[in-house]
From TrEMBL:
<feature type="transmembrane region" description="Helical">
    <location>
        <begin position="191"/>
        <end position="208"/>
    </location>
</feature>
<keyword id="KW-0472">Membrane</keyword>
<feature type="transmembrane region" description="Helical">
    <location>
        <begin position="156"/>
        <end position="179"/>
    </location>
</feature>
<dbReference type="InterPro" id="IPR040177">
    <property type="entry name" value="SLC30A9"/>
</dbReference>
<feature type="transmembrane region" description="Helical">
    <location>
        <begin position="74"/>
        <end position="94"/>
    </location>
</feature>
<dbReference type="InterPro" id="IPR027469">
    <property type="entry name" value="Cation_efflux_TMD_sf"/>
</dbReference>
<feature type="domain" description="Cation efflux protein transmembrane">
    <location>
        <begin position="10"/>
        <end position="216"/>
    </location>
</feature>
<feature type="transmembrane region" description="Helical">
    <location>
        <begin position="114"/>
        <end position="135"/>
    </location>
</feature>
<feature type="transmembrane region" description="Helical">
    <location>
        <begin position="34"/>
        <end position="53"/>
    </location>
</feature>
<feature type="transmembrane region" description="Helical">
    <location>
        <begin position="7"/>
        <end position="28"/>
    </location>
</feature>
<protein>
    <submittedName>
        <fullName>Cation transporter</fullName>
    </submittedName>
</protein>
<keyword id="KW-0813">Transport</keyword>
<dbReference type="InterPro" id="IPR058533">
    <property type="entry name" value="Cation_efflux_TM"/>
</dbReference>
<keyword id="KW-1133">Transmembrane helix</keyword>
<dbReference type="Pfam" id="PF01545">
    <property type="entry name" value="Cation_efflux"/>
</dbReference>
<keyword id="KW-0812">Transmembrane</keyword>
<dbReference type="InterPro" id="IPR002524">
    <property type="entry name" value="Cation_efflux"/>
</dbReference>
């Protein structure tokens, strides 16, 4: 998560400065799309603050009310961020664009907008490069999309998506602003605002989907489940692994629950020893597993009774 912090702080600094300059430029030039971009950057700034807050809360130690810790705080605040991108970013930009298209205003001193967009592109581009580099370190050779789907740390891919949407949004605004200025079509400025809003809505749905899955208790992949099945099945006292359930408590903490059929000749002491041995070995082989709950079953003895 320390790596994610680096990309969050860089995005926070860039978006705060950019939001201020966009609002100033939009006020001077009557540009709807520039105001929309300012809203976008302001929302991104607040999103980074919420992510940092979520990261801080997720590190709180376990207590009697939360025996498995507060790791899911990160997933909750990530979901809130996706909602803010949708509501404050996407819908406000779309409404601003519709108002402008109904009552288009000619751009004044568009040179300021071009200057701000160019500087914003440089800053957002630098922030995106940092986010890409940090996320690239966690991919382990798999494709980008698969890495995003498999990632259990939303603070990493949230910043990546935000910065990517910001750069793409700037390109949209820049291109349509040139057409609006050169062909005297002020309504294109409103269209740019609507397109930026739709882009943010699309991004918010993707982020909400991933954050919701983690918040609702997403567990190990089928590949990891198969590895656990094989590992447990190799134990000398195990007949079979009947069932397994897992859930991410945080990006680096998993709760694993197993129902295991042990050999029927084992007594209570033997089973207890086997459970302790399996729990420790599982934590060593699967480092993300911090909590192991094993329920024993001896089907042979139950059938005899």
């Amino acid at each position: 998560m320390a790596k994610a912090n680096k990309s969050i702080y860089s995005a926070l600094a860039a978006n705060l400065l950019i939001a201020i300059t966009k609002f100033i430029a939009g006020a001077f030039t009557n540009s709807s799309s520039m105001i929309a971009e300012g809203i976008h950057s302001a929302v991104d700034t607040s999103n980074q603050l919420l992510l940092l807050y979520g990261l801080k809360r997720s590190k709180k130690p376990a207590d009697k009310y939360h025996p498995f810790g507060y790791g899911k705080e990160l997933y909750f605040w990530s979901f809130i961020v996706s909602i803010m991108i949708f509501g404050l970013g996407g819908l406000l930009s779309i409404s601003q664009g519709i108002i402008n298209m109904r009552n288009p205003e000619e751009l004044q001193n568009p040179g300021w907008n071009y200057l701000v967009l160019t500087l914003s592109f440089v800053f957002e581009g630098a922030s995106l490069i940092i986010a890409i580099k940090e996320f690239n370190k966690t991919r382990n050779g798999i494709s980008w999309w698969k890495a995003i789907i498999k990632s259990k740390d939303p603070s990493g891919f949230l910043v990546l998506f935000e910065d990517g949407a910001a750069v793409l949004g700037l390109l949209i605004v820049f291109i349509l602003m040139i057409f609006s200025h050169n062909f005297n079509m002020p309504s294109l400025d409103g269209l740019a605002s609507i397109l930026v809003g739709l882009l943010l809505v699309f991004v918010s749905f993707i982020l909400a989907r991933e954050s919701r899955s983690l918040l609702m208790g997403e567990g190990f992949t089928l590949e990891t489940q198969q590895k656990i099945l094989t590992f447990v099945g190799q134990d000398k006292d195990v007949v079979s692994l009947i069932s397994q359930m897992s859930t991410y408590q945080s990006p680096k903490e998993v709760l694993l629950m197993l129902i295991i059929e042990f050999k029927e000749e084992l007594n209570t002491k033997d089973i207890t020893s086997a459970i302790e041995r399996l729990s420790e070995n599982i934590k060593i082989v699967f480092p993300l597993v911090k909590f192991v709950i094993i329920q024993p079953q001896q089907i042979g003895k139950i059938q005899k009774i």
